[in-house]
# Entry
Amino acid sequence: MEQDLDTPAGSEELGRAQALVKSGDWAGAEALLAGLVLGGTASAPARVLYFRVLLRQGKSEDAVRSARDASEAHPSDARVQALYGLTLLKLDRIEDACRHLDRATENFPEDASIWALQAEAQLKAGMQIEAWKSANKACALDIASVDYALLKIVVLAASGEDGKARQLMRDVTAHKAELAAQFHDIIVYWIRHGRHDDAMALAKNACALLPEAAGLRIFYAERLLAANRPPEARAVLDEPALVPETMKDDQALRFHKVRGRALQAMLLREDAIAEYDKVLALDPNDQDALRDLYVLHQKLGNTERMRSAGQRLAGAGAKTLPESLAAGLDALRTRRQALKNAAGKLAWAWEIADRTRWQYDDWLAAVEWGWQADQLLRAWWLKASERSDELEALIDRPARGAVELLADSPRALSVTTHMGPIAGCVHYLQTCGRPFRGFGFRGPDPVVGDAPPMRIASGDAAAALREMLAQIRQGTLVGFAQDTPDIGSESLRFDLFGRSVPISTLVPRLIHKHRAASLWCQPLWRGGRIVIELERLPDPQDGEPIDEWCRRWCEAYVARIAAVMRGAPENLVLGAGIWLNADTSFSERRRGRP
# Structure
């Protein structure tokens, strides 16, 4: 919904700055224009160009200041006032944008572009009635503008006025792609700012208005899946106007993947397999499809097809791995990658961090590196099993290993968390000298010879439980990532750094029933090496009531979780486990907040 604010030529210096921009010398243009701005001789066009040069170089705060200064220096220039409003919109300063544009519409009541910007700001702020009035004003001032007409349709759809929106669409039939893009922008903005119900309602209305808009429908289906509404996601994709055979390959690929995920979530496994086969017909090396096919065939008991999918996944994934594991880990230190959807988890992690040792920016960089390193190690474990020696080379094995610590127990369980370089933990346990299988894990495993999958998983929970019990009885060391919220049906709650955390009692109950020992096995990054922290956990006492025993064991486990959470930031990961397990509302209630 950005307005046209092209900069006209002006002074000689402005012309030189424009030439520098055209040649790609943004720094040179910035230096030249900064001299004009600081010297107080910059014209309005020069200030506009200065803002754009700053924004192009990622200097957002400087760009905001320059736009504000331009607004104050040229209060009678409508174009400059529009620029400042647009800047605030671009940087998600919606309240500031609304305030500024309120004044601007009063001062320039005949400027359609300012009314349109105000409509966008009000819509993003959830002020649909005000947005309708502003969009209507923009359209009245410039009846020929398609952009303003599209904005008005979006506002109407967001207000639930589908009938009025449909009437206006007759005048913009050649611009449905632009309309779909405007819908997408507002939906994404609302999702990013926590207005999920409004976003989903708008997405539904948008798809009703544009039934043939494949990209918009696929996006809506993805959001429905994220909200755990797979039947609705499937229905959205099954609109007769959507014909995947007429889509471009990349869009058809996305369509079949989303539909496959919806069918998989609905337990329509054979149908999901057929959908993923269509994905592979378009891209034989699509790793998402191969990964899901592995799991589907595993659950259906199609062992050979499962192994085939696993082998193809390893082959496709190996092509994307770095030349060496060590080089890949080093490269991550200079490649920042922000964690997605992690604002709440980051806030909690920083709240409990040892701030005597860390400045926030350095701490965040370490968190991001640890998350990326965990992803790389998992990929290496899965897709390069023949090069496991490179993973082994990173591990400092404990002086007393699992075999020694469990020597007195023919039955044993190990527990870890989803923190730290977990692939290092799995590799250690697989090579510790005692047979090992993991329970409760999801996803594919390396296909190595005739060995069974590392994970104990099958078509239903009862079958997986039977296999797990059989493995315990025959002396296999069975591993659990016990901090996940979905293992076991019984749990106890603990206060962990001000938040209520449920911990499953499955492991202590198994220990009590089968007279098994338990082992804490936690991988940690330390000095660029993977250290395996091993320790025997408590054993039940003779005659100890089961409920008391379960609480005592869980308390010991939670204490070790807490130590990892307050430790080195590269071990936090934040993607699963305890970070998804915490009830944040508990801490809010403790602090007296609504």
The longest strand covers residues 517-526. DSSP finds 29 helices and nine strands in the chain.
